Amino acid sequence: MSADAATPIPLLARSLRLTAVPSAVSVSRMFVSHTLKLWKLEDHAETATLVMSELVTNAVKASGITDTDPKSWQIKAEHVIGIQLRAIEASLYVEVWDRTDAAPVRKNPSLEAEGGRGLLLVEQLAKRWDVYRPHVGGKVVWAELPLGLPVELRPFDHVPLILPSGIRASRGPVEGQARTALLDWLSRTTIEAMIAARVIPET
């Protein structure tokens, strides 16, 4: 089959850059719920929200401010994380960028431990997960969730997501780094999916 005769693979993708503070976790859940409702994939919102919450929590701990009520002067331009949802073929990808190189470590907490179960939960819910290191630096931690059926492109309203004041990352070098890293990962994996489906020839 020639590339000209092939049917393009439907792709849905949305991303957002947030200030790396604890409240980014709840905002990331809003982002997932809002986006999947637009995409008519609400049935997957609960699982995707849990996975996004865990990945964002790790990203904030790695590169942000852990004070639950940070002062404005504590927040610098480098306190940025990037989040992205992507649906392609029969998979939904939850993707989170932060500016640190250190990979998240799966822990084996005791039954009495209050935390440390984040990646264990991601492993249970996701088909697979891994870390991608973009050329601009930092890392994208991603998880693939099965959709059951291939995604279809449907018309939908572009309803804006209203965010709390101060949570959207300010424009700057690190915000740009997050944007570029997520676009890099999206482009790379989309091309791989198209090659696997023989929509474009392998080079």
Written description of the protein model:
The protein is of the alpha+beta class and 203 residues long. It is built from four helices and five strands, in the order E-H-H-E-E-H-E-E-H. The protein has a single domain, classed as Heat Shock Protein 90, CATH 3.30.565.10. A hairpin with a 6-residue loop joins strand 4 and strand 5. The protein is globular and about 50 Å long. The protein starts with 10 loop residues before the first strand and ends in a 7-residue tail after the last helix.
Largest sheet: 5 strands, antiparallel
Strand content: 15-25%
At the fourth level of CATH, the homologous superfamily is Histidine kinase-like ATPase, C-terminal domain
Top-tier CATH class = Alpha Beta
CATH architecture tag: 2-Layer Sandwich
Q: What is the element string, with H for helices and E for strands?
A: EHHEEHEEH
Whole-number mean pLDDT: 88
Query: From the alpha-carbon coordinates, what is the Rg to the nearest angstrom?
Result: 17 Å
Please report the distance between the alpha carbons of the first and last residues: 16 Å
Strand order of the largest sheet: 1-2-3-5-4
Domains (count): 1
Low-confidence stretches: none
Helicity range: 25-40%
Shape: globular
Number of helical regions: 4
- Briefly note the structural class of the backbone: alpha+beta
